[in-house]
Amino acid sequence: MLEYKFAGAAPGLRVVEGHEIAGYASIFGQRDRGGDTVVAGAYAASLARLAASGDQVRMLWQHDPSQPIGVWDEVSEDAVGLYVKGRLLPDVARAREAQALLAAGAVDGLSIGYRTLRAEKLPGGGRRLLELDLWEVSLVTFPMQSTARIDRKSDAAQDIALLTAKLSAARAALAQL
């Protein structure tokens, strides 16, 4: 069963030159509105399988498989979370609409579409997601991870926001020890 996790574009997600977007689709160690927490390494095997097969994570509009709007040129894990960098395709009408909505601030979220391979139930509800089969990352209106939003600030402010996210992820990792 394919699941979706709406994560606003993390601190540092930005629109560059109109059609390029970059940032975090998922931040490790942060509980989302559904009670789930993705752990570092949860995407590693899936990304390795995709790379080995020559396949890629799809960029969709609002999780609609009939509406691809661009390509993710880079999808990787780091200490903060799942980093994505890609391009909206200007020859696609919906991508032009998405770019206009992003520029206006009307849409500012990212969401992952995946299948859970391994998870642990958390006391009090929710899950700790240990291994995920990542299918797609969508631009969405309503993100699940409220701390992850497209950042339209200056480069210095983006650096501070990214550092803050990294510190939060490190604190969450230490709390689990």
UniProtKB/TrEMBL annotation:
**Which molecular function term from Gene Ontology is one that the record holds?**
peptidase activity
Location of the Prohead serine protease domain: 19-154
Key words, A-Z: Hydrolase, Protease, Viral release from host cell
- Note one Pfam family from the annotation: Peptidase_S78
Q: Which GO terms describe its biological process?
A: proteolysis
Q: Which domain of life is it from?
A: Bacteria
Protein's name according to its UniProt entry: HK97 family phage prohead protease
